[in-house]
Every structure is written in C-alpha cells, then in structure tokens.
C-alpha cells in the first residue's frame, strides 16, 4: 500500500467521542506531538484537512530528505538566530542526536553527507513516514484525514461547565466528510504548519482564528525563498537572458551581501536562474538578510564571485592577454574559465565598455552585483518566518490565552536556514507540545471509574507542584 494511503483512518474507526488529546495537523510536528502524548498513555486523535498525512514532509523527501545536521550543538543552535533562546531548551530535549536515534528505532538508518547534513539512508521521506504511521496506529493513535479545523465551537472556557467539571481545552468546530461537528478534548495541539505550498495543506487559515482569541501572531513572511532581480520599475531579466538561461544552474559560485545587518558570512554554493530571478541553496542561505534588506530599503544586492578558485589579479593578467582572432565568448572561456550561464550573466549585468578593460572585467567576475527587488511569494518558499509569538506561549508551548491548547512546528515564530534545522525544530517542538498536553491532561483529567468520570483535584495539585502549572494570562 502507498505510504499516504495508510494515513487514512481505518474504516470503522470514527473519531473518539471525547479524545483526551486532539492534534490538528498530521505533518512532522503534529505526528511527533501525537506520538509523545500517546507514549504518555493518552488517547490521541489526529485530524488533518488533506486526504493523507505528511504531504509537505513527503515533498521535502523528493530532493533528499535532510533530517538534521551533524555539526556541534552550539553551532547548530546558532542557526535559529534570534529565537535560539526559546528553542534551545526544546532542542536540547530532542535534538539532532535524539532524532537520529528515533529514526533508527523506526528501522530507518541515517548517514552524514559530505556537508555534515544528515539524511535517511534511502534519502526519501516515504519509507520513514510509512513506518511511523504504522507505529502510531499500532499504539492506538487514530488518524482522521479530510477533517478541517474551522475554529472554536464555543467561547474559551465554555467547554467546562460547573465547578466539578474537569477543565478542558476550548471545543473545536470541525468539518469532516459527514459535515460539521463539535469536538471536545482535554488538550489540543495545533500543528498546522506555515504558509508555503498551501496546496499541500499549510494554508495559514489558522492566523485569524488565533488572533481572534488574543494570540499574538508575528507577520508570516517567506523564508528560504527565491528573489526577483531587476529594478523596482523594471523587474526581471532581459528577454534574451531569460529565454536562454531560465532553469540553468550556476555551479560553484560564491556570494556575499554588502551592508546588510546580520548578513551571513560569504559562502560558496550553487543556485538556479528562474524566469524572473534566482533561487536555490546558496540564495536560501542569504534569504533572511536579503528579504529584510529589501523590506527596509526597497532592494538588496547580492555580490557574486563567478570564479571563486581564481584570484582577481590572476584573472586580470589572463584577460589582458591579446585576444587575437578569438570571439569575446572564447576569450572569457579560455582566459577566465567562464562560459554558458556564467558568461551570460556577466553580459546581462555588465556595461559593454567594461569588457574591453581587463581590470574592470576581472573585478566584475569576482564581485558581480546582482540587484534583487522582491522576495518570491510565500507560497513558493521552502518555509515561513513569523507565526505564533513566543510571548503568547508558556515554556511548554501552551497558549497563555487558551489554556489546554498547545502549538508546535512551523506555525511558531522562528526561522532557520535549510540544512535539517527546519525539521529538527518541528520534531522538537512537537515532542514538547505533545508531552505537555499529556501532562496537562494528567493534571486535569478525571479518573475513569466504573460509574463514569469523576474529577481529580489531587492530580491538579501534583501537576502544579511538578512545575507544569498552567500559566493562564
Ligand atoms: C520543497 C521543500 C523541501 C523541504 N525540504 C526540507 C528538508 O530537506 N529538511 C528540512 O528540515 N525541512 C525541509 N522542508 C521544510 C519542512 O518540510 C517543513 O518545515 C515541515 O514540514 C513543517 O512541519 P509542520 O508539521 O510544522 O507543518 P506541515 O508539514 O506543513 O504540516 C501541517 C499540516 O497541518 C494541516 N492543516 C493545516 N491547516 C489545517 C486545518 N485548518 N485543519 C486541519 N489540518 C490542517 C496540513 O494539511 C498539514 O498536513 C522543506 C519544505 C519544502 C516546501
């Protein structure tokens, strides 16, 4: 059976009338939350709007699933920039080493690539997801696809009535194949992803639903994204360049940004020419700084070194040699090693007269300014910056405004470069939210007696004493 087919709830397995923990979103964060709550002995139901689980996770696996990174933990944590302080305790609890162990326990071996990135042996997400979903179902987790969370069924706090009633999370308004219904749970984990690739499920429709309940959402912005080149008046490449080179990769170039706050150090890599600009791993590495600079100043300049292995002086000497009967294209290829899209980019961006001056030509090859005027739309991005502000959450990722509701994954306000940092933080936050939801339930849950539920105030006190006390705003 196909991996994604197994994610559907088995026929005859309807949502529990009142699950203890409900998880909304069957991506890596939501599934990890479900696993953590289930391991704590709770009855867990997972709901997702899409027909199958983990669609973006499967897409991430197409280009080689980069699960995490093997660099020292301190360097690893620095990739989360301003959100390191909030994420560090969570990632220290379930970080790169724990994630690899977890994959191994699922029977998925991992290896460290030459860049230090960690991949599953098969490179893909599907085998891992298939095994994971199987293990979750065996543990009793119920998965319900084609079930969309629409919002709140009643005002916060209305779910619990009477002083003896157990505290519960706000009731949820759901839409499933049979129509709308109300779902009550003791704890809810929201793990609905960011705002990119909406067709895979993460459409950020949750933003107004949480804002309406007083949750602060930092504006969602593209992260690890492509950019449009040009000028604000005339964006894009020339027709000639676009027709010849759109889709072509520029391999082994170095890039840097001048004058941007918190700009990453210059680095070498590759990127691809698109219809209107550039995208790819080297661009993503600079994308946060480029995006912020464009927002502040209207444009940003990426400086490209098209010949990172040659010095400017050597290039100038070589290019000063007589051309004889050679064409300019041949001269550039023989003397500077530039041809194809690299030579095309030079011609696109450099004034014609500079080609006659070896010094200026060499300087341009070593530092070609490429003006970027807009980040590509968020739907095209690899990930999303912004989201649920950490000030709106307690240290267990519970919403201060909505006791019993926890958040995890990319919908939280953090960003990181590619390299496995995204998935690692999704898994880590999912783990914390799921465990905390379980602890919340244990503290608040009624003891099931033969005659029905009874409240359990002692457990509430124990929950508070263990340091897991709610922090209602
Ligand atoms: C092309 C691409 C390649 C990537 N490669 C990598 C990589 O190699 N390494 C890496 O670390 N990261 C990678 N990422 C990023 C990574 O896939 C995401 O960061 C990760 O999937 C986010 O996990 P999540 O669980 O928070 O959200 P998601 O995976 O987006 O899951 C959210 C789920 O919530 C569901 N949902 C949303 N709203 C509702 C609703 N109202 N009701 C019910 N369900 C809802 C969605 O259907 C979805 O299934 C890649 C991303 C892309 C686009």
Helix/strand layout:
Elements (H helix, E strand, L loop, with lengths): L20 E4 L3 H12 L4 E4 L7 H6 L7 E2 L3 H6 L5 H10 L2 H10 L4 E3 L4 E4 L5 H13 L3 E3 L3 E5 L19 E5 L2 E5 L3 E4 L15 H6 L5 E7 L3 E3 L9 H7 L3 E9 L9 E7 L3 E3 L1 H17 L2 E6 L6 H8 L8 H9 L3 H10 L8 H9 L1 E8 L7 E6 L16 E3 L13 H24 L2 E3 L2 E3 L2 H12 L5
Parallel strand pairs: 1-2, 1-10, 2-6, 10-19
Antiparallel strand pairs: 3-5, 4-5, 7-8, 8-9, 11-18, 12-15, 12-17, 13-14, 13-16, 14-15, 16-17, 20-21
Helix pairs in contact: 1-14, 4-14, 10-13, 14-15
Bound molecules: flavin-adenine dinucleotide (FAD).
The site of flavin-adenine dinucleotide (FAD) has 37 residues, from helix 1, helix 2, strand 7 and helix 14.
Give your account of this protein's structure:
With 473 residues, the protein is of the alpha+beta class. The chain is 34% helix and 21% strand. It has helices at 28-39, 55-60, 73-78, 84-93, 96-105, 126-138, 206-211, 239-245, 281-297, 312-319, 328-336, 340-349, 358-366, 421-444, 457-468; strands spanning 21-24, 44-47, 68-69, 110-112, 117-120, 142-144, 148-152, 172-176, 179-183, 187-190, 217-223, 227-229, 249-257, 267-273, 277-279, 300-305, 368-375, 383-388, 405-407, 447-449, 452-454. Helix 14 (421-444) packs antiparallel against helix 15 (457-468). It is elongated. Residues 1-7, 159-164 and 444-473 have low confidence and may be disordered. Flavin-adenine dinucleotide (FAD) binds at residues 24-30, 47-50, 55-57, 59-60, 65-66, 148-149, 191-193, 196-197, 201-202, 205-206, 382-383, 409-410, 420, 422-423, 426.
């Amino acid at each position: 059976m196909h991996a994604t087919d197994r994610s559907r709830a088995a026929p005859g397995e309807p949502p529990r009338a009142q699950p203890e923990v409900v998880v909304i979103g069957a991506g890596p964060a939501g599934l990890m939350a479900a696993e953590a709550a289930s391991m704590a002995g709770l009855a867990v139901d997972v709901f997702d709007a899409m027909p199958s689980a983990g669609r973006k996770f499967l897409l991430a696996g197409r280009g080689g699933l980069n699960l995490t990174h093997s660099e020292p933990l301190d360097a690893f944590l620095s990739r989360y920039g301003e959100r390191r302080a909030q994420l560090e305790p969570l990632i220290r609890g379930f970080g790169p080493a724990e994630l690899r162990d977890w994959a191994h326990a699922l029977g998925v071996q991992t290896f460290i690539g030459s860049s230090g990135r960690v991949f599953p042996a098969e490179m893909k997400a599907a085998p891992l997801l298939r095994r994971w979903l199987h293990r979750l179902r065996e543990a009793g987790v119920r998965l319900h696809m084609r079930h969309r969370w629409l919002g709140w069924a009643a005002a916060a706090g209305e779910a619990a009535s009477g002083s003896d009633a157990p505290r519960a999370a706000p009731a949820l308004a759901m839409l499933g194949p049979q129509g709308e219904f109300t779902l009550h749970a003791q704890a809810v984990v929201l793990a609905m992803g960011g705002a990119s690739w909406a067709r895979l499920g993460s459409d950020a429709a949750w933003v107004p639903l949480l804002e309406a309940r007083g949750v602060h959402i930092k504006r969602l912005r593209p992260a690890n994204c492509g950019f449009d080149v040009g000028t604000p008046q005339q964006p894009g490449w020339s027709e000639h360049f676009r027709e010849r080179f759109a889709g072509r990769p520029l391999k082994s170039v170095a890039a840097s940004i001048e004058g941007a706050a918190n700009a990453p150090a210059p680095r070498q890599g590759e990127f691809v020419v698109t219809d209107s600009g550039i995208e790819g791993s080297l661009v993503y590495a600079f994308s946060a700084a480029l995006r912020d600079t464009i927002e502040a100043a209207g444009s940003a300049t990426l400086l490209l070194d098209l010949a990172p292995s040659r010095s400017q002086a050597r290039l100038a000497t070589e290019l000063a040699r007589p051309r004889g009967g050679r064409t300019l294209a041949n001269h550039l290829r023989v003397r500077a090693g530039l041809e194809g899209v690299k030579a095309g980019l030079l011609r696109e961006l450099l004034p014609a007269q500079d080609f006659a001056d070896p010094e200026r030509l060499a300087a341009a090859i070593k530092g070609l300014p490429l003006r970027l005027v807009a980040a590509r739309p968020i739907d095209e991005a690899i990930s999303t910056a912004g989201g649920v502000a950490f000030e709106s959450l307690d240290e267990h990722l519970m919403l201060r405004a909505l006791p019993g509701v926890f958040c995890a994954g990319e919908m939280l306000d953090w960003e990181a470069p590619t390299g496995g940092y995204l998935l690692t933080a999704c898994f880590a936050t999912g783990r914390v939210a799921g465990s905390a939801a379980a602890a919340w339930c244990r503290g608040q849950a009624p003891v099931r007696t033969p005659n029905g539920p009874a409240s359990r105030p002692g457990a509430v006190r124990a929950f508070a004493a263990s340091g897991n006390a709610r922090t209602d705003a």
